[in-house]
Amino acid sequence: MFSPVHIPVGMALAHWIPGGPIPVFCAGVLSHLVLDAIPHGDAGIGHWVHSSPNHVTKLQRLLPMVLVDQILGAGVFFLLLSSPLLASTGFWTLFAGAFGSILPDYISGFRDLLTKPPSWLESIHRLHEKCHYRGKEPFNIVTGLIFQSGLVGLSVFFAFR
Hints:
The chain is an all-alpha fold. It has one domain (3-159). The protein has helices at residues 3-16, 21-36, 43-50, 55-81, 91-113, 119-130, 141-159. It is globular, with a radius of gyration of 16 Å.
């Protein structure tokens, strides 16, 4: 899933889980892996990026998509910071939940930037990949983006309700 879906979940966990930023960060990372196990329709985009004929083409495909994803994710984060539901939760706890919820994608993205990633980074990436949905994808790219947009919309709706 894209960052704008993961971030509201991480921020909601920050609101619900006691103990401050560290347990919330860990819960955010776990939430990412759980959400990736749900069919969400962006596997075709990943295949398009990773089927690139060379490293330069892969980066040309990946970086603009990541830029848009992060801008939208930041927009969702800052919008939710002003929500009444999350007003009683500290900024750093909300940030820890949000950052934890997108960290697995950052790790995989960092791996993608390297021409020869170290073995420990490959191991983390493989774990992340194993958490992705493996069945018959019920969404194509367009319906997957609509589904993910709907999840973000519901998150914003409930945060301001």
